Amino acid sequence: MKLKAKAPKAKLGLPTIVLLCFLCFIAGLFTSTLLSQVSVPQFLSGPRSSSRILESEDEDHRPILPGETGESFIASIPFQVLSWKPRALYFPRFATAEQCESVIKRAKAKLRPSTLALRKGETVESTKGTRTSSGTFISASEDETGVLDIIEQKIARATMLPRDHGEAFNILRYDIGQKYDSHYDAFNPDEYGPQQSQRFASFLLYLSNVEEGGETMFPFENGSNMDIRYDYKKCIGLKVKPRQGDGLLFYSVLPNGTIDQTSLHGSCPVIRGEKWVATKWIRNQEEE
Ligand SMILES: O=C(O)CCC(=O)C(=O)O
């Protein structure tokens, strides 16, 4: 009788299994640490890249608990600094095409020839031709569509100037050849007499594209042309081409409270097409 040789059975006890698991865990940990050090490219491992990674994470853009008058969300309003002298910012796509068309529709039936604030000694006759557009004033509360309300709120966020400091929107239309010669929005008391409050900043929302001409111009930007006898009808300096929905903000008053001489601006004549713009003048005091 042949006896079958029996292979001895390896028996693993619980302590051995636990020890083996532990060893596997340690080995895995070691390998992953080694791999992460080897495989992260150089450009991702420096301090700049780690901030880049953080920037793209939502964690970084989470709103924090606001104050009683604050907002519970992070607003994103892209802008470009166009100039420091005057302080001018450009806001691409500030409003939608539909919002712009709605404002134009609302204003169309109410247009009248634009008027001017007169300096001491000036008359309607002597200033004829300075501002040849037509326009109308519409406040946000008058606009039952709610569009001006949305735009006004956004302007207040972008400027951090309270809504109740703003005048009603002045909706303007310039036809071919129409323009606004260079002027200041702030009123110099020496020229206009004592002022209750001052136009501090201006926000222009372009409601239409213009085929040619119609730029908003700043002839004294960065001090240029200030030392020559500048002809106020000339369209020179920094020019902003109107594009439907874009916004332009500039400050007429310096942080020290005096009028910024470089904030002189105007509208170049429209050469082709038609220009529509909504101007919001924002004062240094609450509007009555
Ligand atoms: O129409 C523009 O581009 C400028 C308007 C303007 O200067 C104003 O409303 O004070």
TrEMBL record:
Residues 43-67 are annotated as: Disordered. It catalyses: L-prolyl-[collagen] + 2-oxoglutarate + O2 = trans-4-hydroxy-L-prolyl-[collagen] + succinate + CO2. It is an enzyme of class 1 (oxidoreductase). Its cofactor is L-ascorbate. InterPro entries: Oxoglu/Fe-dep_dioxygenase_dom, P4HA-like, Pro_4_hyd_alph, Pro_4_hyd_alph_FE2OG_OXY. The keyword Endoplasmic reticulum applies. Coiled coil: none annotated. It is a single-pass type II membrane protein. Its main location: endoplasmic reticulum. GO terms for cellular component: endoplasmic reticulum membrane; Golgi apparatus. Residues 43-53 have a biased composition (Polar residues). It is found in: Endoplasmic reticulum membrane. GO terms for molecular function: iron ion binding; L-ascorbic acid binding; procollagen-proline 4-dioxygenase activity. Its EC number is 1.14.11.2. The keyword Transcription does not apply. Residues 164-284 form the Fe2OG dioxygenase domain. Transmembrane segments: none annotated. Keywords: Dioxygenase, Endoplasmic reticulum, Glycoprotein, Iron, Membrane, Metal-binding, Oxidoreductase, Signal-anchor, Transmembrane, Transmembrane helix. Belongs to the P4HA family. PANTHER family: PROLYL 4-HYDROXYLASE 9-RELATED (PTHR10869:SF195), PROLYL 4-HYDROXYLASE ALPHA SUBUNIT (PTHR10869). This is procollagen-proline 4-dioxygenase. It comes from Rosa chinensis (China rose).
